[in-house]
Design brief:
16% strand, 573 residues, alpha/beta
Length: 573
């Protein structure tokens, strides 16, 4: 009787999972596809925590010539049915498997020290070479130098190629070389000011390993981004790149729909499929749709009694993304964020040949970074390099909501509680209370926008705040056509018994010598004009088309009198 499988979180070692009764989603046919691929070296960028490290471990244990006694690890998986392939290739090659995940630091010296540790530990894993009858004494001294960490940077740059040479001498076989998270030190270098140093190192390190290496049988590189060929892979014409945009290896990372259904059924959670889909589905890799986030799925299964929550965050590129998103650029970035959080798709250009220094000057590269990092997914290709993008699922939406709330709190000093309270006044038709709360929010935040001279940015920030705190219960839209014109803000409830809001915003400036009385007369007149505009253009037609009862529609005029917003309610009869 087969032992009941269990979830083993935080383990990316294939052998450990199998030997300890862990549930493994069968990706083993990747082994054969990788080996028979026409490209000598493959680069497969995917979002973090989508199974790259585990897949490399799986490949390592299949090919590793030192693990012939472990060939039964694959007995229950699909690759075992490929009898001829297994007979010819299983446990037949020395394997070099290195992850650069820890190769980062606040400066180049710290980053390189981590790389030294990784190389030393890798050589110590193969310390049997010191006892080899095939290696000459001077070759053993070279191996010992790396084991004792007595090598310099130039020697480090050629360390993987040297190791593959020594393994070839010892076993008489060429090596399978696997490099995981190759771009982690690149991201760290960009963030911490040593980009040129790490690029210079990796250019030689990767070049020596994968270009014209006579001791290389096959190579596989993984990461998040495809770093431009000129930066690292210059003159390497043997690298086949397979990104999330390509129709190859599309079901090999992440869980497909059928795999997700199977694992939920195994753990008696099949009835939760629709909610799981809402929270963790939504990715499209190449031609494969409905790719689920595997990290979130296994965490949910393990902790399902706690309900649904966000488990995934891409720590590698997260700081870069937050840094760019939280820059005050509401006319561009925040308009797009507003649409995304509202559930809409946006059209953006994606540039696979990513060069990090361009990130400072080309703001549109943000959308490439978000897509390859797993924060956005592709709906469809519109034209060459132009794609429709959207948030993949509710989990990622909550991440964006948290980013917006953090930005409002840190940069604009808006307290979440104040935003929620003021919004509740609006949604419950307590317009005078809403006016007072809105005035306080604007009073606290307006100085941030003074230099820009564009008060419209204030309500854009407020709309983002609305989306962040109530976007799960309402559809919030801005600057959309409805009836005979274009409204400013519309708040549409999912529950049709709740109030729906249409807001029209205007602005007037006070003349230098204008009296208080005359200024307030102009404010009242502008409020009435805004209300007339709402009625004349019949903005409510969109709400009626969504079966929102007329009596539940509240039309609100807001006029910025200088820095102060004033509100006029108008309930439809």
């Amino acid at each position: 009787m087969n032992q009941r499988k269990r979830i083993l979180k935080g383990h990316s070692n294939f052998k450990y999972i199998v030997e300890n009764g862990g549930y493994f989603v069968d990706k083993t046919l990747l082994i054969k596809d990788f080996y028979y691929d026409a490209d000598h070296v493959l680069l497969m960028p995917r979002p973090r925590r989508f199974g790259k490290t585990l897949n490399l471990s799986m490949i390592e244990h299949f090919f590793d010539i030192q693990e012939k006694e472990n060939n039964n690890l694959f007995s229950e998986f699909l690759i075992d049915k490929e009898t001829d392939f297994c007979k010819q290739h299983q446990n037949q090659y020395p394997v070099i498997n290195i992850s650069l995940k820890k190769a980062r630091g606040e400066n180049w010296e710290r980053c390189y020290a981590h790389i030294e540790d990784l190389i030393t530990n890798l050589y110590r894993h193969h310390d049997y070479l010191l006892e080899s009858n095939q290696l000459k004494s001077y070759e053993k001294k070279e191996v010992e130098k790396f084991i004792l960490k007595k090598f310099n940077q130039t020697e480090c740059e050629s360390s993987l190629k040297k190791l593959s040479k020594y393994l070839h001498i010892h076993f008489g076989k060429k090596s399978i070389i696997l490099v995981d998270e190759y771009d982690t030190p690149v991201i760290g270098g960009y963030k911490n000011g040593y980009y040129k140093s790490i690029i210079g190192f990796l250019k030689v390190f990767m070049g020596d390993t994968f270009k014209e290496n006579d001791y290389l049988q096959k190579g596989l590189i993984t990461g998040i981004m495809r770093i431009a060929r000129e930066s690292i892979f210059s003159e390497m014409n043997n690298v086949g790149v397979y990104t999330i945009l390509d129709p190859f290896y599309t079901g090999k990372f992440g869980f497909t729909e059928s795999e997700t259904q199977e694992i939920l059924s195994y753990f008696n959670l099949k009835d939760k499929l629709e909610e799981v889909k809402q929270w963790y589905d939504g990715y499209k890799f190449g031609t494969t749709t409905h790719v689920y986030n595997p990290w979130s799925i296994v965490n949910y299964i393990d902790r399902n009694k706690q309900g649904f929550k966000a488990y995934w965050i891409n720590t590698g590129t997260d700081a870069l993304i937050k840094e760019r998103i939280t820059e005050p650029d509401l006319n561009n970035t925040y308009n797009t964020l507003e649409k995304l959080i509202a559930g809409e798709s946006v059209e953006k250009r994606l540039d696979e040949n990513f060069v990090f220094p361009d990130f400072k000057t080309d703001r549109e590269l943000l959308w490439t970074l978000l897509t390859f990092s797993g924060y956005l997914t592709i709906v469809e290709e519109v034209s060459r390099k132009q794609y429709l993008l959207r948030l993949p699922n509710y989990e990622i939406k909550t991440v964006f909501q948290d980013i917006v709330i953090s930005w409002l709190r840190q940069n604009l000093k808006v307290r979440r509680e104040s935003l929620i309270e003021t919004t509740e006044h609006l949604l419950n038709n307590r317009l005078k209370d809403f006016e007072r709360g809105f005035q306080k929010i604007i009073g606290d935040t307006f100085s941030f926008f003074d230099t820009a001279g564009e008060p419209e940015k204030v309500y854009q920030a407020y709309v983002l705040g609305l989306l962040a705190v109530i976007g799960d219960d309402y559809i919030i839209r801005s600057n959309r056509e409805s009836g005979e014109g274009r409204y400013d803000i519309m708040i549409m409830p999912h529950n049709k018994s709740q109030k729906a809001i249409i807001m029209e915003l205007k602005q007037i400036q006070r003349n230098k010598k204008e009296s208080d009385g005359n200024f307030h007369k102009r404010i009242n007149q502008t409020l009435k004009e805004a209300a007339q505009q709402i009625a004349r253009n019949q903005y409510h037609k969109e709400l009626l088309a969504h079966q929102i009862p007329k009596e539940q529609i509240v039309e609100v005029s807001v006029v910025f009198g200088g820095k102060v917003p004033y509100v006029l309610p108008l309930v439809l009869e």
